[in-house]
Each structure stands twice: as C-alpha cells, then as structure tokens.
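Record now logged for everyone:
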Amino acid sequence: MKNVTDSFVSLGHWPSAGGFGFNTDILATNLINLSVVLGVLIYFGKGVLNDLLDNRKQRILSTIRNSEELRQAAIEQLEKARARLRKVETEANEYRVNGYSEIEREKENLINATSDNLERLENYKNETLLFEQQRAINQVRQRVFQQALQGALGTLNSCLNSELHFRTISANIGILGVMEE
C-alpha cells in the first residue's frame, strides 16, 4: 500500500521543467492500469451485460411458458385418453356380452366360405391338369408330325436326282398351264 501512495506522492515531486519520465515501480503502475481498465469495462460493459442478462431472462421465461403450455396440453390429452379408455372398456363389455353368438355365426360362415373356396380350387386344379395334359399331347403330336415330315423330305430329297427333279417341275408347270386355260 505504501508503494501506491508513494507513486502518487512522487508525482508531486517531479520537476516541472524536467520533461517526461517513466515510473518503474511495477506494482504501483499495474494497480493503476488495472483500476483504469476495470473502470472502463464496468462503465461500457454494463449495458452489454444487462442486455445479455435480459435476453437470457426472456429465454428462460419463454421456456417456462412453453413448458406450462405443453404440460397443460399433456394434461388435456391424458384426460381425453382416459375418457376414450372408459368408452372403449364399455364397448368391450358390450361386445363381450353380445358378441359370443356373433362370433359363432361368423365362425360358421367362415368355415362354409373356406369349404366353398377349397372346392372351387380343387375344380380349378383338375381343369388345369386336364388342360396341361391336352397341351402336352398336342405338343407330342406336333413333334412326331414334324419329325415324320422331315424324314419324308429327307428321303424324297435323297431319292430325287436332278433329272427327275426337273421332270417333276416341268409336269407341275404343265398341269398349272392346263388349269389356267
């Protein structure tokens, strides 16, 4: 503390015509600089700090209001859900009391419908099998006919020489010429 007062006292003893000098007492100058900086920060930073605190306060209040609204909405939804649950339980009791005969009737109808479907599927299966058998028989007939025709053509081509072939063509042309007249 003596250093601080000494630095102020030493200001009074400076020679007036001597010029400008430096104070080399580090503790005294640091305290003065620190007090000046803190004073400037408090003076200018007070408004910014107040704005930041006000903004934070508004966000907190807004969050609290939103939370209250959400809580109220959740309470309302809970009440609606409870009312709906009571209604569903009442309906379930009614179905339970009145539903057994309906269930038996639906069960019987389902069994009859399933039986009818199985019968139709069996008929469809039999028709499909018959159709596939007929198609396979027709395919075999076509192959046999094609093979027989190819065999006959092969035999005919091997038996015909060019002279016999020429005579057959000429005779056919002659027959066509007579038919046109």
User: Anything to note?
Assistant: The chain has three helices and no strands. The CA atoms of residues 81 and 87 lie 10 Å apart. The longest helix spans residues 26-159. Confidence is low (pLDDT under 50) at residues 7-17.
